Each structure stands twice: as structure tokens, then as C-alpha cells.
Amino acid sequence: MEPVFVNMYAFAEVFSQPNSSLPSLGLFCPGDTRPVNFWEGTWTEDQDRRYAQYQAEWNKRPVLRHIEGKKARLLTIAPVQRSTAIQVHRLSAQD
After folding, report:
1. Which residues 6+ apart lie within 8 Å of 12 measured at CB?
2. How far apart are CA 3 and CA 55, in angstroms?
3. Which of 6, 48, 55, 68 has the highest Cβ tally under 10 A?
4. 56-74 tens-digit pLDDT
5. pLDDT per residue over 35-46, tens digit each?
């Protein structure tokens, strides 16, 4: 199985591939586009729209496991925190 990086700029291209070319599983950390600190800035309307589409595309896929946690802080340069929620999705029918 080859890992594939999926983000809000490449999801349409990746998810439009035939199921047989996708890895079996995908990890998704739902995020929050609202800034927590004043210095984090804000996203443009286009970025918010893209992220909503990206999240909706993940939500179409079966969730095999949901690890409870907080939404990822998308506007920070900090790494993903241990307390971040993780969803394991089935991406393809291939096992």
C-alpha cells in the first residue's frame, strides 16, 4: 500500500481516482478554521469554502474508527496535538 497525501487543495484530484488506485484507509483530523489567537489571522471565503468541500468529501466515506478529541487548529504552525480527534475512513473497496 502506498501512502497518499490528501489536503484541501488536492482532494478532488485524489478522490476522483478509481478505487483500485487509492489506499485502503485514510486518516482525517477534522479541523476548525476559526482563529484561537489574534496573530493566527483568518482564512479567505474561498479557503473556508474549499475546507468545507474537503471535509464533506471525507464525510462521504465510511468511518471505521473515530478517536474522540478536539478539532485540529488549522491556523496554527504548531504540530497536531495528542488531543486532536482522528477519523479512520475506508477509501477503497480493496482490502
Report:
1. 53, 57
2. 19
3. 6
4. 999 999 999 999 999 998 8
5. 877 777 788 899
Rounded to an integer, what distance in angstroms lies between the CA atom of residue 25 and that of residue 92? 7
List beta partners, residue 90.
25
One-letter-per-residue 3-state SS of the chain:
CCCCCCCCCCHHHHHCCCHHHCCCEEEECCEECCCCCHHHCCCCHHHHHHHHHHHHHHHCCCEEEEECCECEECCCCCCCCCCECEEEEECCCCC
Identify the sign of the CA torsion 54, 29, 88, 85.
negative
Q: Is residue 23 within 8 Å of 14, Cβ to Cβ?
A: no
Instruction: Provide the whole-model pTM.
Output: 0.79
